[in-house]
Specification:
The protein has one domain: 2-C-methyl-D-erythritol 2,4-cyclodiphosphate synthase (60s Ribosomal Protein L30, Chain: A). Helix content is about 30%, strand content about 30%. It is built from 5 helices and 7 strands. The strands form 2 sheets. It has a 5-stranded mixed sheet. The protein has a two-stranded antiparallel sheet with strand order 2-3. α1 runs parallel beside α3. The N and C termini lie close together (about 5 Å). The structure holds magnesium ion (MG). The site of magnesium ion has 5 residues, from β1 and α1. Magnesium ion binds next to β1 and α1.
Length: about 160
């Protein structure tokens, strides 16, 4: 078996008047993530990790923020497309691990729903989709609740 590893990082600004969507789950909160698509920072980091494992560039290349086609896009639809791309190249996901860094809201109550949602889209058992959440200890933009960050690593197998 051949394996490849990729890592992904993303950050989106938190603003009023936007829905907060993480891992495909809408979370009730007074602010949401700003972006051209639904700004699902976790799903974006995972997609970049999948692409990175095969040196295929980043999601900005496939879904440019200048393209009106992706305005308000459901990031799970984009994730399914990236998944198809790696499958077309003969690869499958071994496992995903990720971290969401957010000061608020508390993400723990939503982690299982996010894992289950992403696992369903990727046709994986949920135990292959790791999602952890941490705060930024009130430091920097994330700590001031101005942004949410996500990091992801993905192992691909062939
Ligand atoms: Mg993004």
């Amino acid at each position: 078996m051949t394996i490849r590893i990729g890592n992904g990082y993303d950050i989106h600004r938190l603003v009023r008047g936007r829905d907060l969507i993480l891992g495909g789950i809408k979370i009730d909160h007074e602010t949401g993530l700003l972006g051209h698509s639904d700004a699902d920072v976790l799903t974006h980091a995972i997609m970049d990790a999948m692409l990175g494992a095969l040196s295929l560039g980043d999601i900005g290349h496939y879904f440019p923020p200048t393209d009106p086609q992706w305005a308000g896009a459901d990031s799970l639809v984009l994730l399914a497309q990236v998944h198809q791309l790696i499958q077309d190249k003969g690869w499958q996901i071994g496992n995903i691990d990720s971290v969401v860094v957010a000061e608020r809201p508390k993400l723990k109550p939503h982690i299982e729903a996010m894992r289950s949602r992403l696992a369903t889209v990727l046709d994986l058992p949920p135990d292959r989709v790791g999602i952890k959440a941490t705060t930024n200890e009130k430091l920097d933009a994330v700590g001031r609740e101005e942004a949410i960050v996500a990091h992801a690593v993905v192992l691909l197998e062939q």
